[in-house]
Give the backbone structure.
Amino acid sequence: MTGGSVMGQIGMPELIVVLLVVIILFGAKKLPEIGSALGKAIREFKKAGKDIQDDVKDAVKKDDERKS
């Protein structure tokens, strides 16, 4: 990889293969449950990343104010 996003390199054929593997492993009846859990995990991951960014920005701001 050359520093690009992994999601930018996943195309439709790859997604279809992943979906087929998931259906084979878990069955079609479990797909909504798996999708819901995956969506929740992604939201929590993004929220944690945003919280970390906010904490860093606050720390930098406090440091700048202290230096002034």
User: Anything to note?
Assistant: The helical segments are 12-26, 31-67. The chain has one domain: 7-67. The first helix runs from residue 12 to 26.
